[in-house]
């Protein structure tokens, strides 16, 4: 579960991490009022859950009410990497001299949490990690003890952070780790952590992902999830009871079983396509579940073609085929081409039943994925 920037900032601020004065706005008028109240210059920031908003035009710095109005008008309602912007965070602009990165995540390789610091903040940290891994200082933490203050200081010094702010940055890192641990975090990140001209540290951005399976013991965050599920697709997935993750590509993927869906994602990538989502419809693929799954991928504007990958175990192939037929027959016009691969129990029977006027049937997973990647390329708008 991913919090919005404004929510993560609220959580960080409550824990004592300095954040800019900010107000959330849903209308242009409210954004201008907020800017006037905060005082210029302010940053107006699209509240959608993607990175790189700045480059995509979703963040604007403004110096007066006219500019604020213009920026809010432009950003509210814009389509940012496939996400509709319906809220902006209006925030006191930070006058900064440096941008750092600090983050905490689970290092699965080591089986331990890891705290990270880099002086290469303000840019995509995955790119930094790929180009120049040494530019990120890492400190593994024993969860039984938590992060010791000396570990935070070590990470900060290893990263080469300026001595004048080192203690403050170390304290932000310790707080971030404590929050991550207390809130069942998956990742927590501040990028950039800005250093101001007066040597203050300020969290100019905030990312907090929570382990969805732990939400039952995080009632405050669960409430934020309701508020955050502004992405229609994610809200839909919650309603339908699907495991769903939205991605950037244009090949919609539906399968049963997380491993099978992951394999399909990897193969789409292998054949030069880009997955639009992870969607696991789970066991049992009666018509209703299939209809719901198709509704999900069809309503994703980024999807240009769909691959359906079902392995029949308890779920029988003929039942799934029936479900796919029924679901697709309900459309006057099927919005995107669908490729189906069935395997396992009653797969042969299923493939015979499938209405080939509605779907393309492929025998192997490789063929099905390749076909869907082709369709997506041909039909991409
Ligand atoms: P992201 O690109 O979606 O991660 O959005 P960020 O909140 O990280 O902002 C991206 C970039 O916008 C930052 O690295 C800054 O360069 C710039 N920016 C964001 N907020 C401010 C601000 O308050 N003042 C100034 N001067 N720049 C800002
Ligand atoms: Mn950022």
TrEMBL record:
<dbReference type="Pfam" id="PF00549">
    <property type="entry name" value="Ligase_CoA"/>
</dbReference>
<keyword id="KW-0479">Metal-binding</keyword>
<comment type="subunit">
    <text>Heterotetramer of two alpha and two beta subunits.</text>
</comment>
<feature type="coiled-coil region">
    <location>
        <begin position="351"/>
        <end position="378"/>
    </location>
</feature>
<dbReference type="GO" id="GO:0006104">
    <property type="term" value="P:succinyl-CoA metabolic process"/>
</dbReference>
<feature type="binding site">
    <location>
        <begin position="52"/>
        <end position="54"/>
    </location>
    <ligand>
        <name>ATP</name>
    </ligand>
</feature>
<dbReference type="GO" id="GO:0006099">
    <property type="term" value="P:tricarboxylic acid cycle"/>
</dbReference>
<keyword id="KW-0460">Magnesium</keyword>
<dbReference type="InterPro" id="IPR017866">
    <property type="entry name" value="Succ-CoA_synthase_bsu_CS"/>
</dbReference>
<keyword id="KW-0175">Coiled coil</keyword>
<feature type="binding site">
    <location>
        <position position="91"/>
    </location>
    <ligand>
        <name>ATP</name>
    </ligand>
</feature>
<feature type="binding site">
    <location>
        <position position="205"/>
    </location>
    <ligand>
        <name>Mg(2+)</name>
    </ligand>
</feature>
<feature type="domain" description="ATP-grasp">
    <location>
        <begin position="9"/>
        <end position="253"/>
    </location>
</feature>
<feature type="binding site">
    <location>
        <position position="99"/>
    </location>
    <ligand>
        <name>ATP</name>
    </ligand>
</feature>
<dbReference type="InterPro" id="IPR011761">
    <property type="entry name" value="ATP-grasp"/>
</dbReference>
<dbReference type="GO" id="GO:0004775">
    <property type="term" value="F:succinate-CoA ligase (ADP-forming) activity"/>
</dbReference>
<dbReference type="InterPro" id="IPR005811">
    <property type="entry name" value="SUCC_ACL_C"/>
</dbReference>
<comment type="similarity">
    <text>Belongs to the succinate/malate CoA ligase beta subunit family.</text>
</comment>
<dbReference type="InterPro" id="IPR013815">
    <property type="entry name" value="ATP_grasp_subdomain_1"/>
</dbReference>
<keyword id="KW-0816">Tricarboxylic acid cycle</keyword>
<feature type="binding site">
    <location>
        <position position="94"/>
    </location>
    <ligand>
        <name>ATP</name>
    </ligand>
</feature>
<dbReference type="GO" id="GO:0004776">
    <property type="term" value="F:succinate-CoA ligase (GDP-forming) activity"/>
</dbReference>
<dbReference type="InterPro" id="IPR016102">
    <property type="entry name" value="Succinyl-CoA_synth-like"/>
</dbReference>
<feature type="binding site">
    <location>
        <begin position="313"/>
        <end position="315"/>
    </location>
    <ligand>
        <name>substrate</name>
    </ligand>
</feature>
<dbReference type="InterPro" id="IPR013650">
    <property type="entry name" value="ATP-grasp_succ-CoA_synth-type"/>
</dbReference>
<dbReference type="Pfam" id="PF08442">
    <property type="entry name" value="ATP-grasp_2"/>
</dbReference>
<protein>
    <recommendedName>
        <fullName>Succinate--CoA ligase [ADP-forming] subunit beta</fullName>
        <ecNumber>6.2.1.5</ecNumber>
    </recommendedName>
</protein>
<feature type="binding site">
    <location>
        <position position="45"/>
    </location>
    <ligand>
        <name>ATP</name>
    </ligand>
</feature>
<keyword id="KW-0436">Ligase</keyword>
<dbReference type="GO" id="GO:0005524">
    <property type="term" value="F:ATP binding"/>
</dbReference>
<comment type="pathway">
    <text>Carbohydrate metabolism; tricarboxylic acid cycle; succinate from succinyl-CoA (ligase route): step 1/1.</text>
</comment>
<dbReference type="GO" id="GO:0042709">
    <property type="term" value="C:succinate-CoA ligase complex"/>
</dbReference>
<dbReference type="InterPro" id="IPR005809">
    <property type="entry name" value="Succ_CoA_ligase-like_bsu"/>
</dbReference>
<feature type="binding site">
    <location>
        <position position="256"/>
    </location>
    <ligand>
        <name>substrate</name>
    </ligand>
</feature>
<keyword id="KW-0067">ATP-binding</keyword>
<feature type="binding site">
    <location>
        <position position="191"/>
    </location>
    <ligand>
        <name>Mg(2+)</name>
    </ligand>
</feature>
<comment type="function">
    <text>Succinyl-CoA synthetase functions in the citric acid cycle (TCA), coupling the hydrolysis of succinyl-CoA to the synthesis of either ATP or GTP and thus represents the only step of substrate-level phosphorylation in the TCA. The beta subunit provides nucleotide specificity of the enzyme and binds the substrate succinate, while the binding sites for coenzyme A and phosphate are found in the alpha subunit.</text>
</comment>
<dbReference type="GO" id="GO:0000287">
    <property type="term" value="F:magnesium ion binding"/>
</dbReference>
<keyword id="KW-0547">Nucleotide-binding</keyword>
């Amino acid at each position: 579960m991913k919090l919005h920037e404004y929510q993560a900032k609220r959580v960080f601020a409550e824990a004592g991490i300095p954040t800019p004065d900010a107000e959330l706005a849903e209308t242009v008028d409210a954004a201008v009022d907020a800017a006037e109240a905060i005082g210029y210059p302010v940053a107006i920031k699209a509240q959608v859950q993607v990175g790189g908003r700045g480059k995509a035009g979703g963040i604007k710095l403004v110096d007066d009410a006219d500019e604020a109005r213009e920026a809010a008008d432009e950003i509210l309602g814009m389509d940012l990497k496939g996400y509709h912007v319906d809220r902006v965070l209006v925030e006191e602009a930070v006058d900064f001299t440096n941008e750092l990165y600090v983050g905490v995540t689970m290092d699965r390789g080591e089986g331990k949490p890891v705290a990270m610091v880099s002086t290469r903040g303000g840019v995509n940290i995955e790119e930094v990690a790929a180009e120049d891994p040494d530019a990120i200082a890492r400190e593994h933490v024993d969860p039984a003890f938590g992060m010791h203050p000396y570990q935070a200081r070590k990470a900060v010094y290893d990263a080469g952070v300026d001595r004048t702010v080192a203690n403050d940055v170390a304290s932000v890192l310790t707080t971030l780790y404590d929050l991550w641990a207390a809130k069942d975090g998956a990742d927590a990140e501040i990028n950039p952590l800005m250093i101001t001209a007066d040597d203050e540290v300020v969290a100019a951005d905030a990312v907090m992902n929570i382990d969805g399976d732990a939400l039952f013991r995080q009632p405050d965050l669960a409430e934020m999830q309701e508020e955050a599920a502004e992405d229609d697709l994610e809200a839909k997935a919650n309603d339908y009871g699907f495991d769903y993750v939205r991605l950037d590509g244009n090949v919609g993927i539906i399968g049963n079983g997380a491993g099978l869906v992951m394999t399909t994602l990897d193969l789409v990538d292998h054949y030069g396509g880009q997955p639009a989502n992870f969607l696991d419809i789970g066991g049992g693929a009666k018509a209703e579940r299939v209809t719901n799954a198709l509704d999900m991928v069809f309503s994703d504007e980024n999807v240009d073609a769909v691959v359906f990958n079902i392995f029949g175990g308890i779920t029988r192939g003929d039942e799934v085929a029936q479900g796919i037929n029924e679901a697709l027959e309900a459309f006057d016009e099927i919005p995107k081409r669908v490729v189906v691969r069935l395997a396992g129990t009653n797969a042969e029977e299923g493939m015979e039943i499938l209405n080939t006027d509605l779907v393309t049937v492929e025998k192997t997973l490789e063929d099905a994925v390749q076909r869907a990647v082709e369709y997506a390329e041909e039909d991409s708008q």
